[in-house]
Amino acid sequence: xxxxxxxxxxxxxxxxxxxxxxxxxxxxxxxxxxxxxxxxxxxxxxxxxxxxxxxxxxxxxxxxxxxxxxxxxxxxxxxxxxxxxxxxxxxxxxxxxxxxxxxxxxxxxxxxxxxxxxxxxxxxxxxxxxxxxxxxxxxxxxxxxxxxxxxxxxxxxxxxxxxxxxxxxxxxxxxxxxxxxxxxxxxxxxxxxxxxxxxxxxxxxxxxxxxxxxxxxxxxxxxxxxxxx
Length: 229
Known about the structure:
Structural class: alpha+beta
Strand order of the largest sheet: 1-8-3-6
Number of domains: 2
Distance between the termini: 48 Å
CATH topology of the largest domain: Jelly Rolls
CATH architecture of the largest domain: Sandwich
Strand content: 15-25%
Order of helices and strands: HHEEEEEEEEHHHEHHEEH
CATH class of the largest domain: Mainly Beta
Number of strands: 11
Low-confidence stretches: 1-20
Radius of gyration: 19 Å
Mean pLDDT: 82
Shape: globular
């Protein structure tokens, strides 16, 4: 019994250490072989079919992940913000990129060689813990997005997407304000048309759920749209 109690205490300390781990500071100072690149809005970070040799960490800005069908139709998979990894498929043996990554804002991105990333994940337990947390959160988000597409109205999907983009629920991230994002991109993300997005955005603004003031301000009251049956 005594051994079990000690183990539990160690586990709790481990969890706290993971929460307190400063990922950006680690990546900046760990001696990790990496390249920092700046991208302007609409710049291509990588294209579908490119060789997958690096993992990327978004330090500043925003990136859109999308896929294009054989017929040329684009679908937005995710919008990423500061603190997000992407391109991690190469770690699982993915030889080429399965989609496109495009900067939607002025962005600063850290490129980490696949072999170097794998080495650090084995050596640095705090980094591997944080990376696993990110991957699990990404999988949960994909499942929730699928359920959202299958069962919710386009109005509710838009409200949820705006709240997610504004980082509500991420206590360690600044939230509430969004940089300018096109209604076309929002329409692609939720599977509807731009006129429908424009209609709902005007409705949200009139109800006080969102405000335009250089940036797009998302109020917590928008949750009422998501929670309403």
